Structures are given as structure tokens and as C-alpha cells.
Description:
heterodimer; A: about 200 residues; alpha/beta; Glutaredoxin; two-stranded antiparallel ribbon; B: about 650 residues; alpha+beta; 19 helices; about 10% strand
Amino acid sequence: MDNNQNADQPSVIRRLMPLMIFAVLAVFLVIGLNNVETVRDVPSPLINKPAPQFDLPLLLQEGRLTDQDLLGHVTLVNVWASWCFACRQEHEAVKHLARNGVRIIGLNYKDETEDAKNWLARLGNPYSAIAVDYDGRSAIDWGVYGAPETFLVDEQGFVLYKAIGPINSPKNIEGLLEAANKSGYIELAELLSRLK
Amino acid sequence: MIPELGHFALIIAFAIAIVQSVVPIIGAAKNDTALISMARPTALAQFLFVGISYAALTHAFIVHDFSVQYVANHSNLVQPLIYRISGVWGSHEGSLLLWALILAAWTVAVAVYSRNLPEILMARVLAVMGMISTGFLAFMLFTSNPFTRIFPAPLDGNELNPLLQDPGLAIHPPMLYMGYVGFSVAFAFAVAALLGGKLDATWARWSRPWTTIAWSFLTLGIALGSWWAYNELGWGGWWFWDPVENASFMPWLVGTALIHSLASTEKRGVFKSWTVLLAITAFSLSLFGTFIVRSGVLVSVHAFATDPTRGVFILGFLIVVVGGSLALYAWRSASVVSYGRFTWFSRESALLLNNIIFLTAAGAVFVGTMYPLVIDAFGAGKISVGRPYFDTMFSLISIPLLLLLGIGPVVRWKGDNWSRIAKNVSIMLIASLVIGLLLPFFIEDQLNIATGLGLAGALFVALTTLKDLLSRMRQSARIPLAYAGMIMAHFGVAVFVAGVTVTVSYDVEKDLRMEPGSSYDIAGYEFRFQGTRKVKGENYIADEAVIEVWSDGEKTGELFPQKRVYSGKDNPMTDASIDKTFFRDLYAAIGEELEDGAWSMRVYYKPLVRWIWLGSLLMTIGGVLAVSDRRYRQAVTSRSRQGDDKASVMTSA
């Protein structure tokens, strides 16, 4: 290769350009690969808004549960079903929180009542009350698109955080912790941090 | 035993691929004939062992060997034979084995048909292809082994996804892979040329047929995917701009630019850098597509395996292959200099514009596909980019493209003047615009610019192409196949554009609740629902609706849409029924059974929808014709035609 600087020869920048563009792309692909677990997560539009209205029958007793019952005490609303595999993975964590005084309300999602009762009998019932959402319509209002999901609702009925997937995944523990701390629920935060 | 043999063969193939990658390249650098001569035998041996491995996996499927996990996951006892054979490539691991097999086959083809290539070039090309094989075989052996056993073996497997149990599926991935993998040949030629520091018209002549065949297969593969989606998914859609679809479309767009750029480099020695970069880009996009669909990085309805570990491996491979070749380009492209001169109004300029337009189109699709990922990487939210963006971008880009396609082929090389062709081109352009814009006016009594322009564009390309053919036929009785191929492919574009424009503008879709005995009218066709009956297939039971189609008081057809329940699954699957003619499709799909024997159903009237695939088929055939031209066949048999005066020097056509 001679040093012929005729007008047709591409400059160093032009020759390196394709490689540099690819390098930028590669960076984004690496970041994307890191984000794979969260790529399907859609952030909830309910954050800092009042929890949606609902009026559903109870699973284990006569009577009904409504959004009014969420007021007065900080609550975790846990969406679960007997057909949901990941719900079993988080169940120990849910029971641990309940044993330590956290109020957890269950939303039994698109499930058969018999299957739900059997599941609880086998794995334990941490819920102070369980609402049955048989066709999933109330869940739609909550923006639920899978199970398990858990909503942190404050005593005025505002949604503070939506945990997608098992409640004890690192990402969800972080998120719940942060939301609890921000709103001053120190005891809850304490309990959550012990799930790690 | 046989699966273990298959696994073992794969390991041997991997070892051979390493030898194939390393030895000939060293031989080429040192000009050592002994090392160079290892290229062909290793390529053949690798193909043999990958073939044995593939046969072993197919055997496991055919004999229902559910102790092999992959077979248990994608086949069951009642699965028809054809879907046991095609199930081999129905999911991640098996499709990789198919990739490796096809790559090995292309490598052998290059090894066999390269007698007139300088040995050093041949050695480098085969070595580069060997490197790619090494990567894929390693990927399988280390992260995605198709031969993993499962113990205890289940008594019956999970059947192949019913959506995939269709003849269109049976052939779509192999055709697509023939295309993707075929671009590796162009890539290997480009890298070999950069390594050797010499890129001339002869190199372009050797690359061209391989690239064109790969392009033809890719065209067919994409068209089959679209046709299959239309037939199988029941929504009457044929293209969704889903990331996986875009992953196949981008290499096609760049590949189209590449085959035209190669033509310019061969005939006039211009656009050498463009051609090299396009060759590298086309194959890089093929690999990139493989990455997207298997890593979970983008949300898609078709994603294969969403396993980040595998994603890491492919990304690493992508960085090595693409980064390496682009680094090579940065280092060596100073020696890739084009000396051809041409004026502003010339065939070269037209083809340069062609390169730019296709690259822009590929870029637009790329941006749309990657945008969600980039936005998410910046933490700026989750968005999805869909039809509105892609359709708009594409419609805008097609306007200059169709104009160029009409004018470009008649402009002379090196320099021409507008006045020579002005009269003919203007007449056809004005005629096309007038007819194109008036047609919608007659059909729907109002002006529709978008439809009108689409029709005008298609008409313009059709007219100019036919006129060119007629003038050529008047000049000489014999039409070279290469020219015929070009004409057919370009005409195919016109047919395709007409089909898309008309279907998108004039299709009618209706969701209905129909009781047996009722009927509904759309677009002059009366759909009479006669009721449903139970039907049994080889591995499913179905509710089949009988719908008679009447037009002008006569029965013109019958439709039998089904709701199938496959043996392995509980979820019902819809099988649409289509009454097809050259000019329109009538399409029906049934939904749910409602009360009183009524059913929800969807009926469509789709005018000219078949032209979409007909146009694609014409493009494919055009490519095949172009490759069959005698100039390439002569190159193959030049050693056996010693005395033939035409064999000595290839002049540009």
C-alpha cells in the first residue's frame, strides 16, 4: 500500500466509521441483555393514585370485600392463583410477612374456588381476607396482566408500588422497601429488608 | 445410542471446523499449497459430520424417542410424520442444527464450484465460513445441545405447537436460513478480498451468483412466512412489523442493495467500498436477527428462546464477527479503491441512489426495531413501535424507489442525457399518474392520494419494464437469462406493490354473530352460514362451520373454517378457510360458540392479496433466472471447454 493521497482514498475517519457505529450499537445490546428480565414489565399507571374500586365475594366466608376495606391500615394486595407456579415460590415470603403483622389481602385471580381452597389448605393461608375475582374483570382495573403481582396500598387507599412477579425477587424487595421508606412505614421496611 | 452418536458427530464437526478455520488461512498468508489444500477436504468432512448429527436428531423425532428432551418437548405420539420431520427445526436447538447444516452445505457448494477461483481466495473464503461454523457449533455444544437426554423418559411428549403444524411452516425456516446463511458466502468473499488486499471486477463476478441465489431464497422465505401467517393466524394479516419479521426483512433490504452494487462493481469497477460494506452488513444483520430472536432482548410474539445466557454467547459471537470484519475493513479498505468515472445522469448514479434508498429503508426498520430497547436502556420508559411508524416510513421511501426503478434500468452506463429518454419516460409517468390517481376515484368516488400514488408507482414500473423488454426483443431475438431475470424481478416488484396498495386500501373485515341459516353481505358476496359439524383430523378434533358464498345469485364457493382442539393441548386453535382466486380472497374464521347454536365469526374480503406473494415469487424466480445465465455456467465448466472462444474473456453485458 503506497501513500497515494488521491481523492478516491477514504480517510481514516470514514474507514473507522462503520466500526464505531457498531460499537455504539453493541453497547446498547449489552445493556439490553442486562435488562432482559424486566423487558416485559409494564410500569403501573396507578402509582400514587387511589386503588381502583371493586366489590367482590370472599373466598372463605359469606360477605364481600370492597376497596373501602383497604382504608385505615397499610396493606399488601397479593394477586395469586392455584395454577400459578411462581406464586408457590413467593408464598413462604408472604407467610413470613403475615406472621409478623403485615396485613395482606389476597385477590384470587381467574381461579376455581375448590382449587384455591385446596391450595391454601396445602400451603398455608397468610391472608386476612381473600377476594375472588373469577373472570378477572376487577384485576383488569388494577392493571394485572399475570400472577403473582402485589400492590402496596397505603392507609388512605393510594397505590404506592406494584411488584411484578414473586414478591421476594431482589428487584421487588428493593422497590417495596423504597416505597415503604418514602411513606414512613418503617416497620414494614424493616420486615421487607429481612426477606433479602 | 443414536442421539449420542449425533452428539459425538457434532463434536467431531466442531473440531474439523476449527481446523477448517485456521489451517487454510495460515496457508493463504504463507502461500503454502499443502495448508491451502486442506480447505476443501475439511469443508466436506465438516458437512458429513453435521449431516450425521442432523440425521440422528431427525431419526429421534421419527421414532418417537422421548428420552431426548428436545423431542419430548416438540413431538408426541400422534404427531403426523411430516411434522415430526419439520419439528426438528421447530424450536431453538434444532433450528441451530439446521443453520449449521445449511452453512456446511453452502460451504461444500463453494468448495465444489470454485475450480476457477485462485486457490488463495478459495482458501480464505472457506476458512471464514469455517469460522462462522465454529461459532454456531460451539454455541450448540456449550449452551444449546439438542441431544440432551431426559430421565426418566416420558411416555408421551408435548406436541409441536399447533401453529407450526402447517406446510408453510414446514418450508419457511429452511428457505429463510438458505438466505441468511447464503449471505455468509458474500461475507466470506468480502473478508477474503480485504485480507488479500485485492478487490476487482473478477471478485465481484465470483461473488454475484452466490449472493443472488441467497437473496432469492431469502425472498421466498420471507414470502412464505407472510403467506403462512395469513393462512394460519386467522386475522387476515400478512405482515406485522414484529421484531422477528423485521430481523428477516433488514438483511433482505441490504441484500437487494448488495446484488445491485455487485453488478456495478462487476461491470464498471465502481462502488467497491459500498459492496464490501453491504456484504458485511447483510450477513451481520442475519446474525443480529439470530441474536434478537433468541436472547429475549426484544418483546416479540415469535421469540424462540428467551435465555440471557444464550444471548450473551450470541452477542459475543456477533461482536467478534461483525467487529472483527469492520475492524478489518478499517485497516484494509485503503486498498479498496474505485477508479470508475461517471456523470450525474448515468446508470451508476441510479444504482448509487438505489444503494442509498435501500440502506435508508433498512435503517428506518432498524431504528424502529431497536427504539424500544434504546429507550428502555436510558430508563425512559417502555414503549413499542408499531404499524404507524413502519407503514409511514415505508410508504414514503417507496415513492422515490418506484420512480428510480422505472427510470434507472434504461439509463446508460458512464453517462447519458435526459433528453434521450425524456419523451418515453414522461409519457409513461404521466399515464401512470393519471390512471393511478383516477382509479380510486372510480372505485370509491373520492380522491385517495395514498392509494393513487401506490397504484401509479406499480403501473409506472410495470410499463417501463415491459417497454424495456419489448425494445430489447426488437433488437435481438435472444434474451440473455440475466436480463430476463432482471425484468421478471422488477415486474414482480410492480405486482407486489399493486397487491399491497389494493389490499390495504380496499379490504373489508367484519366481526359477526351468525346463527345457522343466516347470511351477511360484504363487497357483493353473500356469506351464508349453514351451521357446524364435528370433524376429526389426524391429531385433532374440530368444530367445522360450513359457509356458502353466493354472488349474483350463483354459488361461487364454500368455506370451512374450523375450531380445532389438538390432542396435547386444551386451548382451541382456529383454522381459517380461504376461497382464493387470482383477484381476491374471501376469508372466514370462527370464534366462539354463542347461545342458540350461533357462532362469532370474522369474514374478510381481500382484493389482490395473492399478488403480494405472486410478486415475491416473481422476484425469486427472477433471481434464479439471473443466476442461471450462461456466463456463470461457463465459469463452472470452463476447464472442460478448452476450445470455446466464448470462455476466455468475460465482458460486461
